[in-house]
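Structure tokens please, single chain.
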Amino acid sequence: MVKFLKPGKVVLVLSGRFAGKKAVIVKNYDEGTAARPYAHAVVAGIEKYPLKVTKAMSKKKVTKRSRVKPFIKAVNLNHMLPTRYNLDLELKQLVNAEVLKDPTQRKASRKSVKKILEERYRSGKNKWFFQKLRF
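Here you go.
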């Protein structure tokens, strides 16, 4: 079987608190680990998408509406739907299995992921990733 769930692949989380949200695979564990004996992946995704911005809005309002709220989570491969899209984000150093265990590290890495995602949003690349799913 061909391994297509590689780091950088955009997926949709199908179950749990973040169901229906888009995420990017940071690292996948096809064989599982001792703590999680099933195939899973560490993902970083968007919990709260940026809102619509118009020309008439002030600079302050635009910056406030352009915020992204990220999440970091280990998700079972059965609970995600892969898309055709890939995202080339440098999240490998920021997010890993050890970060998920400690709440303070998780919070720090979430802040750094937020910074990277907001920067990517402001650059105007990968517009599809930053739009809320309508279903």
